[in-house]
């Protein structure tokens, strides 16, 4: 699978809260460091849509 360009990752922010993101290449995920939403990466393309994001279940803070 192709990796997301490092230049592109540096430009991305979470569309839900505008927080910084981390790219987890091995898991094909982009994770917001502020709200913890997880955005999928499909075929090397980040899917940065709030509707496509997941949040871990459990006792996260709001």
TrEMBL record:
Pfam families: Trm112p. Gene3D superfamilies: 2.20.25.10. One of its GO terms (cellular component) is cytosol. It comes from the Bacteria. InterPro entries: Trm112-like. Belongs to the UPF0434 family. This is UPF0434 protein ER308_06390.
